[in-house]
Amino acid sequence: MTQQRWRQLAQWPLVVVALVFIAVYSLQVLANLQGPARTASQVALWLCWLAFAVDFVMNLRLAPRKLRWFLTHLHEFAFLVLPALRPLQLLRLVSLVSILQRAAGNILRGRFLVYAILAAGVITYIGALSALDLERGAPETGITSFPLALWWALSTVIGMGESTWTVTWPGRVVAVGLMINGMALVGAITATLASWLVDQTDDADDEERERITRERVSDLRDEVRELRRELAELGSQLRRTDDRS
């Protein structure tokens, strides 16, 4: 089996796992699960994380140049290993975004703006969940409910600024990630609009060139008709000359 074949086979199962991860994590945070229910949700989340780890190992095993592939995917390795430390468990969410990005990138290829907005929406939602999970119960935090967390995440992404803020250092890591995501989204939208304007200009130039070409073709047709008429007259004159002689 090749790496490309594995990625094709694993793509949609991993998307399902990622969606299950979002659903379970949402339930865990929004319902504030405790006791056996929280333990069960944690087991489900770790099983999802294990699926991501298996995907990483298989990609490494099937890569033609293993060392090069590993070095170029060190960030994915870090996202898989660091969550073993409890304060860094939120990094599992980065693995989740990476899996969704792989599938969405294939589906929305050529629709970069749509993809960027969808990715920003997913990251914002996950950021709100993470902030609520990390900040819940912290002293002096302004994030005490999911609506407040979602408003904080949206404000952070678009750079609007808000009186609500995070007080724990993992929560501030989430805030930095959302800020970077917001800057990337603005850059993507700006680049896409610029590309669209260039395409519109090119289309206008193409229409102008097509109009000029049609005019030139029409002129050539008129000239050909005139040449045919002159040749016909010349032929008639030659025949009359032959008849006289």
From TrEMBL:
Ranges where the Potassium channel domain occurs: 126-198
Coiled coil: 210-244
The keyword Methyltransferase belongs to this UniProt entry's keyword annotation: no
Transmembrane segments: 12-31, 43-62, 112-131, 143-161, 173-198
Topology versus the membrane: Multi-pass membrane protein
Alphabetical list of SUPFAM superfamilies matching this protein: Voltage-gated potassium channels (SSF81324)
Subcellular location(s) of the protein: Membrane
Key words, A-Z: Coiled coil, Membrane, Transmembrane, Transmembrane helix
Recorded superkingdom: Bacteria
Main location (coarse class): membrane
GO cellular component, one term: membrane
Gene3D superfamilies associated with the record: 1.10.287.70, 1.20.5.110, Voltage-gated potassium channels. Chain C (1.20.120.350)
Name this polypeptide is given: Potassium channel domain-containing protein
Source species of the chain: Enemella dayhoffiae
